[in-house]
């Protein structure tokens, strides 16, 4: 998830089961939820963030019936001299009766323990559109980071992605494709990543088995961390 010590931009290399409410007062329209997961590798946009090691991850989300949401999420990592990632995000999401969904927001990535206070930190803005019908979900998203921070000042990064999932009974099959590009990339000046996976829920736990990989340009940029790999994750939402 970094170019020469810098990560480029979401989401969390697992599929989680939708969270249920921890607190949702009827008169406030506010819902608080939480999630925790263990995964055999934290893969972000095709690149391991934990040097191919396991990760413990978790977060909290606060949403309002209007569609406004805020949240935080964290994971252990292993690149550069930082051992932790902490994300803060917020935005607006809604779904129309037609099955069309819209999501717009931002993510602030923090990496405590870097050589300087903001060596790896950066902000990303995103716009996503989704459509679901008859058990099939389609999605596309554009993300933009205007400045990667101290390691690559005044250099932008962009990411476009598309996904499809199909639910049949208790099992969901999903496929994803992404393309990273921008000023922060030099040689090569972009790379592609993709994944396919299966997920289900068993005894209240989310189970996910996925294969992640990048094209040759990804492996040139990130070496072994971008090679193809199978990742298993177990998650719990509350």
Enumerate the spans where pLDDT stays under 50 for 5 or more consecutive residues: 1-24
Span of the ends, CA to CA: 28 Å
Classify the secondary structure makeup into a structural class.
mainly beta
Helix content: under 10%
Binned strand content: over 45%
* CATH fourth-tier homologous superfamily: monomeric porin ompg
Would you count the extended β strands for me? Answer: 14
Please state the oligomeric state of the protein chains shown.
single chain
Shape: globular
CATH level-1 class: Mainly Beta
- State the CATH topology: Porin
If you compute it from the alpha carbons, what radius of gyration comes out, rounded to the nearest whole angstrom? 17 Å
Biggest sheet architecture: 12 strands, antiparallel, barrel
CATH architecture identity:
Beta Barrel
**Order of SSEs:** EEEEEEEEEEEEEHE
Averaged pLDDT, please?
87
Number of helices: 1
Structural write-up:
- The strands form 2 sheets. Strands 1-4-5-6-7-8-9-10-11-12-13-14 form a 12-stranded antiparallel beta barrel. A two-stranded antiparallel sheet has the order 2-3.
- It has 1 helix and 14 strands; from the N terminus they run E-E-E-E-E-E-E-E-E-E-E-E-E-H-E.
- The longest helix has 7 residues, at 216-222.
- It has one domain: Porin (Beta Barrel).
- Helices cover 3% and strands 58% of the residues.
- Residues 1-24 have low confidence and may be disordered.
- The protein is an all-beta fold.
């Amino acid at each position: 998830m970094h170019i020469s010590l810098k990560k480029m931009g979401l989401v969390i290399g697992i599929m989680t089961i939708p969270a249920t409410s921890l607190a949702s007062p009827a008169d406030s329209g506010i819902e608080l939820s939480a999630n925790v997961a263990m995964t055999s590798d934290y893969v972000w946009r095709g690149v391991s963030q934990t040097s191919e090691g396991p990760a413990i991850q978790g977060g909290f989300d606060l949403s309002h019936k209007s569609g406004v949401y805020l949240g935080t999420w964290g994971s252990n990592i292993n690149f550069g001299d930082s051992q932790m990632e902490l994300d803060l995000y917020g935005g607006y999401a809604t779904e129309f009766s037609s099955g069309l969904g819209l999501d717009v927001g931002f993510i602030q990535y923090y990496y405590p323990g870097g050589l300087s206070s903001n060596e790896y930190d950066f902000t990303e803005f995103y716009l996503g559109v989704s459509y679901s019908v008859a058990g099939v979900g389609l999605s596309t998203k554009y993300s933009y980071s205007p400045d990667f921070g101290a390691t690559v000042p005044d250099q932008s990064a962009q990411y476009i992605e598309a996904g499809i999932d199909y639910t049949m009974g208790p099992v969901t099959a999903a496929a994803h494709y992404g393309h990273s590009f921008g000023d922060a990339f030099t040689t090569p000046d972009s790379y592609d990543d993709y994944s396919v996976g299966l997920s289900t829920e068993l005894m209240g736990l989310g189970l996910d088995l996925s294969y992640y990989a990048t094209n040759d340009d990804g492996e040139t940029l990130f070496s072994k961390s971008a090679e193809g790999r199978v990742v298993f994750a177990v998650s719990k939402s509350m």
